Amino acid sequence: MKKFSPLSIAQLTDIHLFANEYHQLLGLPTQDSFLAVIARLKQLQFGRTGLKTRSPLDLLLLTGDLSQDGKPETYRRLQNLLSPLEIPTYWLPGNHDNKSAMEEVLHQKPFYPDKAFECGGWNFVLLNSAVPQRVYGRLSVPTLHSLDLQLTIMGDAPTVVALHHPPFVVNSEWLDSSSLQNSEQLFAILDHHPQVKLVLFGHIHQEFYRQRNGVHYLGTPSTSIQFEPDSQDFSLDREYPGFRLLNLYPDGTWETRIERVAYAHELDLAAQGY
Fold first, then answer.
1. Which CATH architecture has domain 8-260?
2. Sign of CA dihedral 80, 85, 90, 95
3. What percent of the chain has pLDDT over 70?
């Protein structure tokens, strides 16, 4: 990697795959929408020539709700779908995931089970905010202590922290009841570690941005269904599935954009939950 070349990352979140590849989530076949996302990733990786030289994507970051049913066979399908890309892939669980099944399956290359690592001059810390049998998120005391320790050990290199649940409300009453329940404890730790530049999350199935004390908090659309922003009751949006691309530079600067894929399917807009 050249001295000033960026680390290129794709954040994929809220895939909601099923063990049965034909199952739908609120009228949307989640494997089909995910295949459309993978096709776009292949375009980014191989380019127009179709010849693989060096992948422009250095890393895939999967930020939870990878499965809707939490079955091992679902995670095996996820691994089979992404492995041909040959891009190092890191993951964390969401509220619909089965952490034990994830650990059982998602540990063979290109998947890595590490939750603290360095890549391209940046440090990464991945957090488990899922609470068993609950939709909302919470960071346990051991998780918070581990975060503080990892940030201390890793030093001053620019850092990304990732989790599933948003640490901010998003002006949607039904969604805000399932956000991170102890955000202030997370903020208290991040306030002591100015090397943290970005916090990435999913769960809200929509784009989101907030800045707090020099840290940029980015929410990312789902590769499946989208939630309507600023909706007080459960509501689906007609936006296309998407993911986030980031370029991280060694000096701590960064740039990002949302990619959406032209995948459309008739949704069950009368649905009341997921």
1. 4-Layer Sandwich (3.60)
2. negative
3. 93
